[in-house]
Specification:
Layout lengths: L1 H12 L26 H11 L4 H10 L3 H5 L6 E2 L4 E4 L8 E4 L2 H27 L24 H16 L8 H12 L4 H8 L15 H9 L25 H10 L11 H6 L3 H5 L1
Helix pairs in contact: 2-3, 2-6, 3-5, 3-7
Length: 286
């Protein structure tokens, strides 16, 4: 129905139809599907399934939340390692956007950069040795295809690599959006605010972020357990006050003389503090 509405709207704009009858029909909102995200164990399983060549792509997606097409179209010139920032010149939103890089994401990209440099050096050495006609220039793409002039095609990768490997690993419900959902869910579980998550996902509002709030039952269980800290504590029972004994005449003088010699008038067990608490105020005052 939505497709028909768009077609007729174009016909109206072309002046071939007075109005769009479909626009009068109320469209029901499509229910939100299940948000699938990977546990750390599932992520490791997926990395092992796709192999060492594609595992960096999987991990980088989980660390940055980049969309599949954004990641495969990534160029080296768009990466600022010093600032920890990726510039995305072409995005789904139709404007330039930025992706923040954490330490592990930068490490992965540096390793890919190092591997590309080594591969280029080998190619140049083979060209000099005559085993290859010419040394090809290093690719501008972070994820180049077999032809270094082009990047990996996102749809081809999803059909040829992603789907078969996911099935092989026995990971049900994992789609091309799962790694982005994984990134978002981990932000939620780390306690990030809706505004922070929306900014890192590059959403214009927090409306779409709220759908992640129910994720990770174990995380919610941990939060619920914290409520048990708020309980009524028992009031401490005050100890019975001791009635000070009457000090006989002359005892104070004797105690004072004994204190001057370094001896406790109450014996070796009680301290001076205990003496005061015990009611020997006269001796303590003197």
């Amino acid at each position: 129905m939505q497709f028909l509405r768009q077609v007729l709207s174009k016909v109206v704009r072309d002046g071939k139809l007075a109005n769009n009858p479909v626009s009068l029909i109320k469209m029901f909102r499509e229910p939100a599907g299940r948000l699938r995200f990977l546990s750390p164990e599932e992520e490791q399983t997926l990395c092992l399934a796709v192999g060492p060549e594609c595992a960096p792509w999987v991990r980088l997606a989980a660390l940055t939340g980049m969309r599949r097409a954004e990641q495969f179209r990534l160029q080296w010139k768009d990466i600022d390692f010093e600032r920890g920032l990726i510039t995305l010149p072409v995005t789904k939103a139709g404007r330039v956007q930025y992706v923040k890089l954490n330490g592990e994401a930068k490490t992965i990209l540096r390793e890919l950069d190092s591997m590309a440099a080594k591969a280029q050096a080998v190619t140049e050495a083979e060209a000099i040795a005559g085993r290859q006609k010419s040394a090809s220039c290093r690719s501008q793409w972070v994820f180049p295809s077999e032809n270094p002039d082009t990047h990996v095609d996102p749809r081809d990768f999803y059909r040829r690599v992603h789907l078969p490997k996911v099935k092989q690993a026995g990971l049900d419900g994992v789609t091309r959006h799962t790694l982005r959902h994984t990134f978002a869910s981990r932000l939620v579980m780390s306690g990030s605010t809706e505004g922070t998550i929306a900014a890192l996902l590059r959403h214009s509002s927090t409306a779409l972020v709220r759908r992640y709030a129910h994720l990770s039952p174990s995380h919610l269980q941990e939060a619920v357990e914290k409520v048990t800290r708020f309980r009524k504590t028992e009031q401490p029972v005050e100890p019975e006050k001791q009635v000070p004994k009457a000090v006989a005449k002359g005892e104070g003088e004797s105690a004072e003389r004994r204190c001057e010699t370094g001896l406790n008038p109450l014996g070796s067990v009680q301290t001076v503090t205990e003496t005061v608490m015990g009611g020997y105020g006269r001796w303590a005052a003197e």
